[in-house]
Design goal:
Number of domains: 1
Distance between the termini: 18 Å
Order of helices and strands: EHEEEEHEHEEEHEHHEH
Helix content: 25-40%
Structural class: alpha/beta
Shape: globular
CATH superfamily: Glycoside hydrolase/deacetylase
CATH architecture: Alpha-Beta Barrel
Largest sheet: 6 strands, parallel
Number of helices: 7
């Protein structure tokens, strides 16, 4: 089966627009959230980027997958074992408390992790781990706890890669599109994202799934 997964980090106000477009095309995605950064604002240049207050946006993510992105987005490789455990385990606990559903997917903050992160994820029962290494082909990773990406929202590079994915004749193939909803706002590429969704919709052989649904289907985990 050809499966496409969309994975968005950080839980910013622009998730609203992404989710509206996903619902328009009857698609789902995985949203990787930080439970300890409610309402936090930071700047890209002079543009403010605001995070959502999660408890006030439970209904927004209805029908989408809620996944962990750590409590407050640290560089995991710089932390102690206990700190890594807290960042991942507490975020899982917090998100499950807010959204009243299991959280089994994790996406790495800052592309920064080491083997300890994987061991903590295994111990806590996570079934998927999205890393930010770029995959040039569409083969399913051997390890469900190291799933790379094929295209990134920041670089607007999905056009060429999705064309190759559509043309790929493999019986089983995976395409992971990942990044941040705010990239579409910052770079003015909302129309590109909608065109991307339209292309996917035109190919019913491509099944759009959340990260955990993909892992359950392909790896028989979860």
């Amino acid at each position: 089966m050809k499966i496409l997964v969309m994975s968005f980090d950080d839980g910013t106000i622009y998730d609203r627009q992404v989710i509206a477009l996903l619902r328009k095309y009857k698609m789902k995605a995985t949203f990787n959230l930080n439970s300890g950064l409610d309402g936090y604002i930071w700047y890209l240049g002079d543009r403010p980027i605001e995070r959502l207050v999660l408890k006030d946006n439970v209904s927004l993510y209805k029908g989408m997958e809620v996944a962990s992105h750590s409590v407050n987005h640290p560089h995991l490789s710089e932390l102690t074992w206990d700190e890594i455990g807290y960042q991942i385990g507490k975020d899982k606990e917090n998100l499950e408390g807010i959204f009243k559903r299991p959280v089994t997917a994790f996406a790495v903050p800052f592309s920064d992790y080491d083997e300890r992160t994987i061991q903590v994820l295994e111990r806590l029962g996570f079934t998927s781990f999205r890393v930010d290494s770029n995959n040039q082909d569409f083969a399913f990773p051997k390890n469900n706890l190291q799933i790379g990406i094929n295209a990134d929202t920041e670089y607007d590079d999905q056009g060429d890669s999705i064309t190759r994915f559509i043309k790929d004749k493999s019986k089983d193939a995976l395409y992971v599109f990942a990044g941040h909803s705010y990239d579409f706002e910052v770079h003015g590429t909302w129309d590109h994202f909608e065109a991307f969704l339209k292309r996917i919709k035109a190919h019913p052989e491509i099944k759009v799934m959340t990260m955990s649904a993909m892992v359950k289907h392909h790896y028989r985990i979860g």
